[in-house]
């Protein structure tokens, strides 16, 4: 090429949650059936969206307006509805003009980091959700800057670590919260959120809160929205319907701007994001039309509560199976639908294996684990995949020095759920003893 095409930051763009599927597909071609525990799609794990929701969406398709462009910021009626939902919480107040729709939160995340100055950084949690950490690192052409989530303390943030990294890194201009958290399933305590707001105020930062799982909590937990705690600090909340309805194929998410008018630089930043969406014209129309109709239906909240109870029940089943393995650091989950399980230090090594009956798959795994400097949890994940057909995601791929794996809590067939996690338990024991 006449000049270099690829930016230096492009190498940071990776998504192990889907990358592992490529290996699963190779294993599958040799005859191994696969149980996918890698991605948070309830529909793929036997969830059936209620008929009344599907009928609601179907009826909206009869409206000719559902096939048109909508306003660039999103349908006004829907934005007004969402602003009213937020304002009922009696925290930061917004109007419809403070809401901007995107084609899923992946689109929103890309836009946020795209318009941050290359020398400025957003610090996020570790283990990190790959879409955030990759996009942030790519914009800066550097490794992500993270604060620790502590597996020895319910995965709660290490606030001293966060404070010191913000204090001694003047390039940090924002703090990312994912609440409830992906990949750990942790729900941020109220006092922790308030302390993070104090840190942002002290160092004149903005807050970014990914709240795609905000209404997915269980076993007595309650997630507090950014709007409820942010006070007068500038911030952005990211929300959507892909996990909550669930309608992941809708690719429908939105941002809510808080205290936009209280900081000139932050207001310009929000304007740049608004303008970028205008260049694209708009986001998809049909899901936006559906939001106020479905969410205001009296059947919706009981339906969501029942789904949450089911996820909570599954989290307890998984805890009962994996929680007693002494070589693991296991934390029960209270939000979202994932669990991150971590191996204790020094229990993994580069000689451990699992028996793989299929010779072709055995050859594949031996090739994969022979790569130089392969993370020890990736090694376990590859052996687990070929030996049992269970596809999980290594935690080292979530911008973490910890070694472990992430699973979902989505399998609605309880017999299959029990079988899958019993097989994981037995594979862990066999792998560690090998």
Write up this protein.
- 41% of the residues lie in helices and 14% in strands.
- It contains 14 helices and 14 strands.
- The chain is globular, with a radius of gyration of 22 Å.
- With 434 residues, the protein is α/β, with parallel strands linked by helices.
- The strands form three sheets. The chain has an eight-stranded mixed beta sheet with strand order 2-9-8-7-6-3-4-5, sandwiched between helices. A four-stranded antiparallel beta sheet has the order 10-11-14-13. Strands 1-12 form a two-stranded parallel sheet.
Keywords:
14 helices; 41% helix; 434 residues; alpha/beta; 14 strands; single chain
Task: Summarize, please.
By secondary structure, the protein is α/β, with parallel strands linked by helices.
Q: What structural class do you assign from the helix and strand content? A: alpha/beta
Give the overall shape, derived from the CA principal axes.
globular
- Name the assembly state: single chain
Average pLDDT level: 93
Largest sheet: 8 strands, mixed
Please count the beta strands (DSSP E, at least 2 residues each): 14
* Number of H/I helices: 14
Distance linking N and C termini = 50 Å
The radius of gyration computed from the alpha-carbon positions, rounded to a whole number of angstroms, is 22 Å
Strand order of the largest sheet: 2-9-8-7-6-3-4-5
**Helix coverage percent of residues?**
40-55%
């Amino acid at each position: 090429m006449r000049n270099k095409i690829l930016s230096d930051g492009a190498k940071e763009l990776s998504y192990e949650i889907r990358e592992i599927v490529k290996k699963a597909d190779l294993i599958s071609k040799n005859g191994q059936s696969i149980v996918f525990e890698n991605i948070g799609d309830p529909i793929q794990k036997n969830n059936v969206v209620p008929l009344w929701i599907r009928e609601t969406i179907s009826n909206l398709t009869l409206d000719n307006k559902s096939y048109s462009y909508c306003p660039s910021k999103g349908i006004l009626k829907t934005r007004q509805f969402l602003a009213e939902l937020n304002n009922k919480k009696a925290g930061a107040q917004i109007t419809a003009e403070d809401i901007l729709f995107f084609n899923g939160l992946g689109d929103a995340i890309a836009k946020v980091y795209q318009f941050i100055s290359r020398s400025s950084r957003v610090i996020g949690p570790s283990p990190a959700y790959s879409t955030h950490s990759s996009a942030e690192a790519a914009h800066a052409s550097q490794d992500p800057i993270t604060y620790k989530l502590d597996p020895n303390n319910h995965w709660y943030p290490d606030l001293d670590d966060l404070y010191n990294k913000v204090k001694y890194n003047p390039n940090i201009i924002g703090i990312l919260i994912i609440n409830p958290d992906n990949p750990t399933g942790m729900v941020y305590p109220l006092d922790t959120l308030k302390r993070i707001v104090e840190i942002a105020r002290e160092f004149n930062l903005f807050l970014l809160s990914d709240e795609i799982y905000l209404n997915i909590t269980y076993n007595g937990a309650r997630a507090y929205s950014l709007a409820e705690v942010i006070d007068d600090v500038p911030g952005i909340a990211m929300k959507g319907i892909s996990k909550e309805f669930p309608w992941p194929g809708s690719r429908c998410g939105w941002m809510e701007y808080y205290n936009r008018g209280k900081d000139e630089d932050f207001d310009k930043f929000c304007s740049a994001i608004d303008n970028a969406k205008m260049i694209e014209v708009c986001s998809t129309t049909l899901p936006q039309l559906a939001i106020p109709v479905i969410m205001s239906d009296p059947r919706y909240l009981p339906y969501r509560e029942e789904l949450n109870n089911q996820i909570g029940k599954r989290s307890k089943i998984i805890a009962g199976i994996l929680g007693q393995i002494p070589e693991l650091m296991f934390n029960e989950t209270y939000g979202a639908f994932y669990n991150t399980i971590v191996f204790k230090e020094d229990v993994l090594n580069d000689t451990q294996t699992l028996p793989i009956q299929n010779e072709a798959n055995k050859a594949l795994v031996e090739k994969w684990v022979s790569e130089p400097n392969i993370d020890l949890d990736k090694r376990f994940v590859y052996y687990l995949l070929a030996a049992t057909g269970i596809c999980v995601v290594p935690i080292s791929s979530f911008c973490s020095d910890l070694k472990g794996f992430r699973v979902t809590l989505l399998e609605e067939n309880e017999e299959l759920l029990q079988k899958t996690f019993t097989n994981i338990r037995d594979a862990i024991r066999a792998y560690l003893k090998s």
